[in-house]
Amino acid sequence: MSHPPLPPQGHRPPDPHHRPHGMHGPPGNHPGSPPGYPGPPGDPGRPPGRRRTALILAAAAFAVVLVVGLGTVLHLNGSFRGGDQETRQAAQKTSASPSSSTTAPTSAPPFAKSEAEPPARANVAARELFRVPQPVKNGDDSIASDGSWATDSLYISGGEGDVRAYHATTGKKAWTVDLTGTICEASPGITTEGLIAVLSTKKPGKNAHCTQLTVIDVDEGRKLWTATTPGEHQSRGWGTSVAVTDALVAVGWEHRAVVYQAGTGRQLTVAEAGCDNRTFAGQERMLSVAVCGKEVVLHDHSPETGKPTQTITLPPQVTNARIVSTDPLVLATMTKLPFLDAEKYMTMKVDQLMVLTREGRVQATVDVATGYEIGCDERDTVCDQAVVTDDTVYTVTAVESLTRANRVVAFDLVTGRRKWSAVSDTGTDRKATKHRLVPIRAENDALLAYLTSTFRAKSEVVRFGPDGRRETLLRMPDTREINDTQVNMASSSGVRETPRFVNGRLYLHMRRSFWWHLTDPVMTLAFGPR
């Protein structure tokens, strides 16, 4: 709502009731013109007092009539259109906010757009806690450092032939668990009992098979057990998944899958022949997806035996799938490619998010074929650009270029409809900083995300509430060297782990393929409050 122009003479005194542009008063009210405008000056040579008083009284009477009449018109307008108070308030908020565009194909209510300058907590300034240089390796072999985990007091990651833990505030080594070879794949999370699992080669070398499954207790810093995966056709790491719950540990690859007892390492079951591309997901419960002939099936595994207790055949149009969340159950599916192509390609080919009930009924679907980045990696089967809460799935739009920001989009798990969308840049003019937004994890009903640094601006950890409002939690130091390092570390989802944010600290980690001739100096970078 625009304010009336100032009169040509006089001065407007400060108004304690004035609100900045875009803010509204109580529901149903609009801020009126601020009081305190001076009346027109009296005629020359005549005392202005009585005339000014009369003019003020007349204007006040006219204003009362105008407000009453206008209120009646507005009330009749709202009643005629069937608009209740909530509808009118929503319309007022929508008209007050700038219009926004999106690539989302699903119809939805108006966006709840994040503010140009989102609120920040009182103390969000961060300092660098520590950094870990990349492994040094001479020769033709590359080094993989898959795995990134964090607790309140430790940061744990894969290293050169080991898994290592650092004290969260100092970066000093807390413990190291040695492996026999190079890490091929790692479980994405820590169980409630503090367990993680890694798959590695039996010996160093680029042609070695990935046969050694190791389970580690991160609270005690010790190896629980190591088992050799069975069978002739062993994994080479590509398309391999490792998952862990407090009861089970599972590893699946193109032609085989095996499930172990988490506490002892006892082999429980080996998947039957006839199914390919088995991928597992753990944490709350152990689930797996496999392509069996011309069907894609989902298994729920018994925590006692490791065998499937429930088998769900996905709709016939689904040719491959990845598990985004086990509870609620959300899948990233492919429906537009034939089975042969779907078995080979997962990156950027996911076209639908599918929400299932516990019984296997399709509850909702979300079309993400165009303009979205779900982050399903063809190498390790993880979809790290989608985050699920009890009632919402958050994902991001694809980054079209380095000069454009992406958006976070929230979808309702029950209906599949879009709730809101928020842009990742800061500022509203042409010089607005174009951050890239990377999802981290859920926090209750909210989304935690990492706004990547640019060559012009510092990075941030932000929280998007269930209503789309953004809050800054941590702001990294603004130095050219730190910004450049973060840009390099976050440039590709294929070589970085999902950022970790625990107990107010941010951890960035590069996960694989450090060649001896590359010059990127950092494997891990950690930040925390000053």
TrEMBL record:
Keyword Ubl conjugation: no
Alphabetical UniProt keywords: Membrane, Transmembrane, Transmembrane helix
Pfam families hit by this protein: PQQ_2
Renumbered residue ranges of the record's region Disordered: 1-50, 82-120
Transmembrane intervals: 54-76
InterPro entries: PQQ_rpt_dom, Quinoprotein_ADH-like_sf, WD40/YVTN_repeat-like_dom_sf
Pyrrolo-quinoline quinone repeat domain: residues covered: 148-269
Annotated Pro residues bias: 1-11, 28-47
Low complexity: bias regions: 94-110
Keyword Methyltransferase carried by entry: no
PANTHER family registered for this protein in UniProt: CELL SURFACE PROTEIN, OUTER MEMBRANE PROTEIN ASSEMBLY FACTOR BAMB
Protein name: Pyrrolo-quinoline quinone repeat domain-containing protein
